[in-house]
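Course assignment 3, question 2. Fill in each field.
Student: A.L.
Task: Predict the tertiary structure for the chain below.
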Amino acid sequence: MERPPEKSKGNQQAESNTTKPSLALLVSFGMEQKGWSQTDLAESANVSQSLVSNLLRSRRRSYKLESLQRIADALDMESIPLIEASTQQPAESDLDEELEFLWDKIKELPNHSKIQARNALATIVRQSEMRKSQN
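Answer field:
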């Protein structure tokens, strides 16, 4: 059996510097593709709605593998990217790259989904502005 070629340190560093989407981003994109709410995903994956909410808001740092597998299955996704995303701590410097990734994904969506994405982003911006004005 032939062994795969070993990676050089340069290749390993390049791979580790590649930005991967966050768990929240992957799940929200999967929900958007299906047109699902948090409740829809929770019911389909047989997990609590609060778990889905916390996941989408990045409120927890760890999740049971079984829960991630159920979510992946419900969204017709591979579980490995969700598991990998759940173990990484995104740096603030990765935020711009993650937003760029998300923007590229939004541009690929059909128009009705682009409208939903725009509306969701507009809501987030309004809520953020309200929080700023209250402080």
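Instructor remarks: Residues 35 and 98 are 22 Å apart (CA to CA). Residues 1-18 have pLDDT under 50 and may be disordered.
Grade: pending
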